[in-house]
Write a structure and sequence with these properties.
Elements: E1 4-5, H1 11-23, H2 26-38, E2 45-49, H3 54-65, E3 69-73, H4 82-90, E4 95-97, H5 103-114, E5 120-123, H6 127-132, E6 143-146, H7 149-160, E7 167-170, H8 175-198, E8 206-210, H9 214-225, E9 229-233, H10 237-245, E10 249-250, H11 253-259, E11 262-265, H12 275-278, E12 285-289, H13 299-305, E13 306-313, E14 316-321, E15 326-330, H14 336-339, H15 346-365, E16 373-375, H16 379-392, H17 402-408
Parallel strand pairs: 1-4, 2-3, 2-5, 3-4, 5-6, 6-7, 7-16, 8-9, 8-11, 9-10, 11-12, 12-15
Antiparallel strand pairs: 13-14, 14-15
Helix pairs in contact: 1-3, 1-4, 2-3, 2-15, 3-15, 8-9, 8-15, 15-16
Bound molecules: 1,4-dihydronicotinamide adenine dinucleotide.
């Protein structure tokens, strides 16, 4: 079997983590049980470019249970859990990912999974899809799936300029993905990453959250719950107003720069913290990014202004500026929850990856019927995923009475 990982000997340790994550992935468990019986992916190669984590490993096992031949490469050079990669290889699933790999190796690994002529591809950030639409136009696929907001934005831009040549399921657009993974998953794991990197007490600090979307709202809520004073920076007036009414101060990036102790970018945009902001920051502030790419904090300009850069703790670098102020950056400005912690908890990836598995099944079931474009999974799938998760949490779902159903679909009854 062809693969490229850091150390196959780490497999037993990785297998323990995969098993632990699997215990908390109830919805994926039910999908797996059905996949074992029905084999809806039989004979199809599925190439996934996702964060190589214990939760992703459970998705790979579910795809294999469904009859697919799964392959995995990383969707970020710093998020790979090398022990998990080894555990998957020990299971006979080819993995091409090494934590800390350079950009050349990263793209070599994407090409390696594409060399297996996949029928379905899965992405987190659209790097694989981009290669599929540039250097590897030789590969014909039934369809692709996309996990995250930034990837969906890139794919919509490809559709808008006529480049997109395959149907893509935007898994991020499923309610059971973005309302839970982005909000609760990013909220908790981003703070987890910052705490692991720095071991600071968040209570009493000014935490600046740049971007108040699905992820930013979750980060702000968790920081608030830990006793931080949350300041939000937003460019969208409606989201900025929502932040204000959620009880946060809303400031421009320039004003927030003077007050913040910890800065968290989560916009999906470029250079939202840059030289003009670094100039105003206090000594000892910590910068972290939870947005998909490592371009939200302009590290090139921070590096250019710094007289010294040194590593002070695992996943925490200190930049010393000419005037002596120190600015600390967690996880090299890459996704802090994956670079400095373990990514989202399995409980929430359960829903995201159930949607991924069901999206692969849906694409294969609809082979030849879908035009190139961006698709959202049918609402019944969303509701099915939510209902199973609710049941696992011990919740009960109320049912409409016949009288209520008829009232809601009529117009005659009024005052
Ligand atoms: P979203 O589109 O719901 O929210 C982004 C927000 O940032 C918007 O409200 C937008 O107005 C705001 N924004 C854009 N430019 C800005 C600027 N210059 N200053 C201030 N605000 C600005 O997106 P979502 O779902 O919250 O995702 C954000 C990023 O996080 C994306 O890159 C996404 O791919 C990534 N993501 C990361 C995860 C992780 O594990 N760390 C998980 C899920 C998503």
């Amino acid at each position: 079997m062809n693969y490229d990982i850091a150390n196959p000997d780490l497999a037993p340790q990785g297998a323990r983590r995969v098993e632990w994550a699997g215990r908390r992935m109830t919805v994926l468990g039910t999908v797996r049980e059905r996949f074992v019986k029905e084999k809806p992916l039989k004979g199809h190669v599925v190439a996934a470019c996702l964060h190589v984590t214990a939760e992703t490993a459970n998705l790979m096992l579910a795809l294999r249970d469904g009859g697919a031949e799964p392959l995995l490469c990383a969707s970020n050079p710093l998020s790979t859990q090398d022990d998990v990669a080894a555990a998957l290889v020990a299971e006979g699933i080819p993995v091409f990912a090494i934590r800390g790999e350079d950009p050349e190796t990263y793209y070599k690994h994407i090409n390696a999974v594409l060399d297996h002529a996949p029928a379905v591809t899965m992405d987190d950030g659209a790097d694989l899809a981009t290669v599929l639409h540039t250097d590897r136009r030789d590969i014909e696929v039934i369809g692709s799936t996309e996990e995250t907001t930034t990837g969906v934005i890139r794919l919509r831009a490809m559709a808008a300029d006529g480049t997109l040549r395959v149907p893509v399921v935007a898994v991020n657009d499923s309610a059971t993905k973005h309302l839970f993974d982005n909000h609760y998953g990013t909220g908790q794991s981003t703070l987890d990453g910052i705490i692991r990197a720095s071991n600071i007490l968040l209570a009493g600090l000014n935490v600046v959250v740049v971007g108040y979307g699905d992820c930013g709202r979750g980060v702000a809520k968790r920081a608030d719950g830990m006793g931080s004073h949350v300041i939000v920076v937003e460019v969208d007036p409606i989201r900025a107003l929502a932040a204000a009414m959620d009880g946060h101060r809303v400031l421009t990036a320039s004003d927030a720069a003077e007050e913040g102790d910890v800065f968290i970018t989560v916009t999906g945009n470029k250079h939202v913290l840059r030289a003009e902001h670094f100039e105003k920051m206090k000594d000892g502030v910590i910068l972290a990014n939870a947005g998909h790419f490592d371009i939200e904090i302009d590290l090139a300009s921070l590096g250019a202004d710094a007289s010294e850069r040194r590593n002070v703790r695992d996943n925490l670098d200190e930049y010393v500026l000419a005037d002596g102020r120190r600015i600390l950056v967690a996880a090299e400005g890459r996704l802090v929850n994956l670079g400095a912690a373990e990514g989202h908890p399995a409980d929430v990836m359960d829903m995201s990856f159930s949607n991924q598995a069901l999206a692969a099944e849906w694409l294969i079931a609809n082979e030849g019927k879908l035009e190139p474009g961006i698709y959202t999974l049918p609402p019944e799938i969303d509701e099915h995923v939510a209902a199973i998760k609710l049941e696992a949490l011990g919740g009960g779902l109320e049912k409409l009475t016949e009288e209520q159903a008829s009232y809601l679909s009529g117009w005659q009854e009024g005052t």
